[in-house]
Specification:
17% of the residues lie in helices and 32% in strands. The protein folds into two domains: 35 residues, no CATH class; 93 residues, Immunoglobulin-like (Sandwich). It is of the alpha+beta class.
Length: 152
């Protein structure tokens, strides 16, 4: 595993520690353990997103969606199955899992739904008015008025 020195980043910036932590998590994540369950992240509008997780074999009661520490955490644990069932082939994985999706600032979870073996989590970006771009009015100053003030 490669390790990066973040000291230069901290010398010239303030408040980017969350970004650095996010980069560390992305670089250190083991891709083999993060392949289940499969998921999609899609942009559904200008400020709207959807995370879709394939959860075949799980009911809505088996699933848990939680918002914690700036991340959406999806977890599942299958209820105990009947011991009377004998599988000749078991291709549908219903093993317990936990999947974490880190959210950017100002992203709010709007809701979640379970349909046709898919868990959909709808997100929306709500930028506060104070952070939205705004137009600054430019006052017009007449040259003649300026000259009069200088002469006085």
């Amino acid at each position: 595993m490669r390790s990066f020195d973040r000291a230069p980043l901290y010398r010239a910036s303030v408040g980017f520690d969350r970004m650095a932590d996010l980069m560390d998590r992305a670089l250190s994540a083991d891709s083999a353990t993060q392949s289940y369950p499969p998921y999609n992240i899609e942009k559904t509008g200008d400020d709207a997103y959807r995370i879709s997780v394939a959860v075949a074999g799980f009911t809505a009661d088996d699933l848990n969606v939680e918002l914690r520490d700036g991340a959406v955490i999806v977890s599942a644990k299958k209820a105990e199955e009947d011991e009377d069932r004998t599988f000749l082939h078991r291709g549908i994985a219903t093993r317990a899992f936990e999947r974490r999706f880190t959210l950017a600032e100002h992203i709010r979870v709007e809701g979640a739904s379970h349909q046709d073996g898919m868990l959909h989590i709808d997100l929306i970006r709500e930028v506060p008015e104070s952070l939205k771009p705004r137009r600054i009015a430019i006052d017009r100053v007449e040259n003649s008025a300026r000259v009069e003030k200088l002469d006085s």
